[in-house]
Specification:
This protein is of the alpha+beta class. The chain has two helices and nine strands, in the order H-H-E-E-E-E-E-E-E-E-E. It has a domain at 34-123: Rieske [2Fe-2S] iron-sulphur domain (Rieske Iron-sulfur Protein, 3-layer Sandwich). The longest helix is centred in the N-terminal third of the chain and has 17 residues, at 8-24.
């Protein structure tokens, strides 16, 4: 499988947001526009895209891989709480823009720290969320 690097355009804006969060010591998440529902985010998903979403009052990150599979996970990095929806896709992994932690979406682990597990659900069109 070919692993293409994320384009500068897909990484720069989220990375700047992550850097700003580090500098100010917080995250203006509440100032973001209303997040789409998981179903809405899935309907709009494009390959190699990371999107913020919600289910009720819970915040999620929807990640679509190159092959079209989409996954939902909580929108907080277990490393330090940064927004995973600011990250980017590299192969089967979501890379956190804040500090570069990688998460294997298929296995649900951080490959560099296998003891760190994340709650990942594969989304399928037509399934109610």
């Amino acid at each position: 499988m070919s692993h293409r690097r994320a384009s500068v355009a897909t990484v720069v804006e989220p990375s700047l947001h992550a850097l700003a969060c580090d500098l100010v010591g917080g995250d203006p998440i509440d100032e973001r526009p209303e997040r789409p529902t998981l179903g809405q985010a899935l309907a709009r998903a494009k390959p190699r895209q990371v999107t913020s979403a919600r289910r009720g009052r819970s915040r999620f990150c929807v990640v679509t891989l190159e092959d079209g599979r989409s996954f939902a996970l909580p929108d907080r990095c277990p490393h330090d709480g940064g927004l995973l929806s600011d990250g980017y896709v590299e192969g089967n992994r979501l890379v956190c823009a804040r500090h570069g932690w990688e998460f294997d979406l298929v296995a649900g682990i951080c490959p560099m720290r296998p003891a760190v597990r994340i709650d990942v659900t594969e989304l399928r069109p037509g399934r109610r969320r």
